Fold this sequence. Notes:
Residues 1-30, 130-151 are annotated as: Disordered. This protein is α+β, with helices and mostly antiparallel strands.
Amino acid sequence: MDDSGKKEPAKRKPKAGGWGIRPSDDRRNGAVSLDQVGMKLMRPLLGKRGLGEGDIAFHWESIVGGSMLARESAPERIVFPKGSRTGGVLHLRVPNGALAAQLVHLKPQIMQRINGYYGYPAIADVRIHQRPLPPRPKRPGDPPPLAEEDRRALDVKLKDIDNPKLKTALSGLGEAMTRRGKAGKR
Length: 186
């Protein structure tokens, strides 16, 4: 306040980098990863399901490892005690009873991995529910082998190459291009 009793306008303080160019993390219109945008869009929806952090749903495979557990289970919600963000109960969905029985024995490891991911004891218990899993997008599998005539034609083109590493790389590229060309003709 000044002598007349009026409040002075608040002054903006410069950030750590000064008044100059702000780091990209601080910019409003800078490049942003798709993961961050997806999290901003999904957080309200996941919050309604008890997954307010949302990270656990997006990163489930990396949290529990890229194993059968990640493919055959899905987090449904986390229920925390009132007024606390620690000691929550993770509700996990599995498709069959055999896997549910197996997961009962893996509860300590699941809790350890999730708490290690968050960096604090967020989960104190895991409840397992036997329900069908939501559909997941299919990942492309191994491509089918080339037809014998295409393989022979590719081998003829690569017969003069002496370097085995180069020949292997060019063979893989040739296979991919041949498959792409055949897919485009369908």
